[in-house]
Amino acid sequence: MAEIVIAPVKSILSINDLQLAAAKKLPTNAREFYDSGSTDQITVLENTTAYRKYKLRPRVLRDVSKVDPSRHILGQKIDFPLCISPARIQAMAHPDGELATSRACARRNVHMGVSSFSNYSVEEVTGAARSIAPIVHVMQLYTMNDRAKEERIVRRAERAGCKAVFLTADSPVLGVRYNEHRNDFRTPRGLSFPMLEKTSEMIREETHDDGFVALNSDAHSWAREIPWLRSITKMEIWIKGVLTAEDVALAREYGCDGVIVSNHGGRQLDGTPATIDVLPECVKAAEGQIKVHIDGGIRSGVDIFKALALGAECCWVGRPAIWGLAVDGEAGVSKMLDILYDEFRRCMQLTGCNTIADIRKSCLGIAQPNGPLARL
Ligand SMILES: Cc1cc2nc3c(=O)[nH]c(=O)nc-3n(C[C@H](O)[C@H](O)[C@H](O)COP(=O)(O)O)c2cc1C
Ligand SMILES: O=C(O)C(=O)c1ccccc1
């Protein structure tokens, strides 16, 4: 078998390099926990590979000396349309966990999602960024069995300055992740889950899925969750985990502010499509009346460009931030954001786009097997 060559940190030039460097640092059970998808790993793989069939249609001989990759997202201008998705147990990748992620987001001026299963509290995470830059944090939420506890999370997030709730809608139950069974994965001892008001010792004892079943409810519904959330918070309400035009229509009907087209990074239901492939139907169903963001498999600035050309307002990444954390804490997450920023900016210039508004469907074609490039 060919030897796998792992890049030293100083020669990390791409997100792929970063993933390989993180793999070298993390113990097997942590690496598999972060990187895996559910069951046969098809959706997790396709989230990334699906981008390949979309090809760029560059326009040339344009003055791109004043390119501007910035965009207003969640009411605030960020350096480029890429934010960090909520992902749990970041302190297993680096002791500074979500604090490091928050600081790196502030340094690059992009927004951040905070998981309800974070190892630092929303107050600490928003506080970590405050002295650097006034970025937006959003609070990720599951529908919980204990509604009073869920309400406390929402109220704490609002008080800590979060602008939106991301209600994760794709997880009434947890997807099947073989690695967690095979490795008997449990959240490491000595960590805390301040939003859940629990320690890892408490969570380890609850159920063999890190307390997911003990804490979360599979009896969620549009009618039960959205009006209730609306009644307890002024924050924006976004639905995370939408993959169909039908659910975008429901999000509109229930007065939500936005949707994140997401299959949870392929960790929930294997066999769901790559998010980039359902983005167009979701954007169409939104009719400009509700914001449409996307996550899953975005690994380069070119991927961000393609998602924008297909109608996303903004992209989010999950695992790349974890890999950055594992490699070098805050500096590693900064490295990840800088790589994506540089790649995205350069892609804009090389396609002849000066502003985000210039990035449209006509910038892409779709590869046909054994045929000419088709227009979208
Ligand atoms: C290790 C890990 C933990 C995650 N934890 C959460 C979570 O607590 N809540 C949630 O809504 N999504 C969670 N996600 C999903 C991410 O928010 C996001 O949808 C996904 O990672 C995007 O795909 P990508 O990793 O390919 O960028 C998690 C993802 C990973 C990889
Ligand atoms: O691991 C995940 O993808 C995830 O979202 C999650 C969150 C809390 C408990 C278990 C899984």
Automatic annotation (TrEMBL):
Gene3D superfamilies recorded: Aldolase class I
ATP-binding found in the keyword field: no
Protein family according to the UniProt entry: Belongs to the FMN-dependent alpha-hydroxy acid dehydrogenase family.
Positions with a binding annotation for glyoxylate: Y142, R177, H264, R267
Key word Oxidoreductase present: yes
Any one of the GO CC terms: cytoplasm
Residues holding FMN: S115, Q140, T168, K240, S262, D295, G296, G297, I298, R299, G318, R319
PANTHER family assigned: 2-HYDROXYACID OXIDASE 2 (PTHR10578:SF149), S -2-HYDROXY-ACID OXIDASE-RELATED (PTHR10578)
Residue ranges constituting the FMN hydroxy acid dehydrogenase domain according to the UniProt record: 7-369
Xref: InterPro entries: Aldolase_TIM (IPR013785), Alpha-hydoxy_acid_DH_FMN (IPR012133), FMN-dep_DH (IPR000262), FMN_HAD (IPR037396), FMN_hydac_DH_AS (IPR008259)
CDD domains linked: alpha_hydroxyacid_oxid_FMN
Cofactor: FMN
Keywords: Flavoprotein, FMN, Oxidoreductase
Protein name: Oxidase FUB9
Gene Ontology molecular function terms on file: FMN binding; oxidoreductase activity
Pfam families named in the record: FMN_dh (PF01070)
PROSITE patterns, sorted: FMN_HYDROXY_ACID_DH_1, FMN_HYDROXY_ACID_DH_2
